[in-house]
Amino acid sequence: MTKKRIAVIGGGASGLSSIKCCLEEGLEPICFERSDDIGGLWRFQENPEEGRASIYKSVIINTSKEMMCFSDYPIPDHYPNFMHNSRVLEYFRMYAKEFDLLKYIRLKTTVCRVTKRPDFSTSGQWEVVTESEGKEEVNVFDGVMVCTGHHTNAHLPLESFPGIEKFKGQYFHSRDYKKPEIFTGKRVIIIGIGNSGGDLAVEISHTAKQVFLSTRRGAWILNRVADYGYPVDVLLSSRFKHFLQKICGESSANYFLEKKMNQRFDHEMFGLKPKHRALSQHPTVNDDLPNRIISGLVKVKGNVKEFTETAAIFEDGSREDDIDAVIFATGYSFAFPFLEDSVQVVKNKISLYKKVFPPNLEKPTLAIIGLIQPLGAIMPISELQGRWVTQVFKGLRTLPSQSKMKAEIAKAQEEMAKSLIIKTTDKPKFRNTLQNCVETIKNIKNKESLKPWHSTEEPEET
């Protein structure tokens, strides 16, 4: 029987694990990588390439090696818990070599178009047009795995900042930032307090005269190093904490986490306290930002209302003059222009079943891998997504009907839109929840009241 051919688009972390998943299921993968090497986001280059993610030289990963490694290839013991981008790339190279993945990758090959074949409703096949060294090639595939990520296209909302066109200093997106020396002795505004904004504020403050960190809504700042020196994601991701969150609810989990973060430094006092709860949006992972703020080298400001030729005026009426540079750490947008009408991205959002499968196709032979922003590492999630997808491609697993998939997508979007802010009227109910949590913890301490974690009973059939 002829092996099914699968196109894997992108040779980064998600692309590498997808190739391996295909091989494990007896499929025939061909990976198309537009640049001249693997690694995707984690391969640093001085000059950003069009269509490829770009990082700055000093980037340290925000997830620990214990939580980001692939399931069957642990990161070496002598590597640090939180790795520099060069070490992350080394790990991906070792992974590719260990499982002999490189021979399935075509470098310097751009995917131009992915279109349904005329008999798609019965065959589920795709026609993939690629270009390499000026020559186009057409291939037919039984499935497509899109692994291009979501840090490719810089989101630069200049229309939201009146006067920026008159500003005489330099301004650019954080994607184009590489090192801090060019800002020596200058006054710099960084707009956005995500991970990039926080990192750049800290790093540039070592050379700049003054850094201003502008934020619309603040952020919860999480330290990489948690209690007793353990990686924070290792402590927060335990099964015990997950169990307590299920028992006590999301509000209680937010309360305890926010209290813990405020013990390190009071977010309200630092001008960083956001309106959203800790678990409702991504925290900013930064070990040094509070130290730079308390030393005055980074000043937290509100949203910029407008720019003049040399100054920034903020929404609270304050003004900062003699500004030399503005860096927009305003995130990224993603798109799949090669997919034409098969997948639609509207306002940087896409409807996918379980964040993987487009629900509107007659055959489930197209999947998006790694297009997810979890509270943790993407790599293990991409691996699990790849396993599921390849089993669907092979026919070992089936998806629900289109109507059921769309209903579940709508439900997930509705839940995400809900606010987690506790209202004053909710406080009595919240106190009762906390009391229930306390009682639960007391019961857990009484070992006789619990069944052993590893039960000897036979599992129920599913």
Task: State the main characteristics.
FAD/NAD(P)-binding domain; flavoprotein; disordered C terminus; 2 domains; FAD; EC 1.-.-.-; 462 residues; five-stranded parallel sheet; 28% helix
Overview of this protein structure:
The chain is an alpha/beta fold and 462 residues long. It folds into two domains: 5-152 and 334-399, FAD/NAD(P)-binding domain (3-Layer(bba) Sandwich), CATH 3.50.50.60; 158-330, FAD/NAD(P)-binding domain (3-Layer(bba) Sandwich), CATH 3.50.50. 28% of the residues lie in helices and 17% in strands. The protein has twelve helices and 20 strands. It has helices at 13-24, 65-68, 85-98, 120-123, 195-204, 232-236, 239-248, 250-264, 289-294, 379-394, 402-417, 427-445, and strands at residues 5-9, 28-32, 105-106, 110-116, 126-132, 135-141, 143-146, 153-154, 170-173, 187-191, 210-214, 221-222, 284-285, 298-301, 304-307, 312-314, 319-320, 325-328, 332-333, 366-368. A five-stranded parallel sheet has the order 3-2-1-7-20, with helices on one face. The chain has a five-stranded parallel sheet with strand order 9-18-10-11-14. The protein has a three-stranded antiparallel sheet with strand order 4-5-6, with no helix packed on it. Helix 1 runs parallel beside helix 10. The two termini are 31 Å apart. GO terms for molecular function: flavin adenine dinucleotide binding; N,N-dimethylaniline monooxygenase activity; NAD(P)H oxidase H2O2-forming activity; NADP binding; trimethylamine monooxygenase activity. This is Flavin-containing monooxygenase.
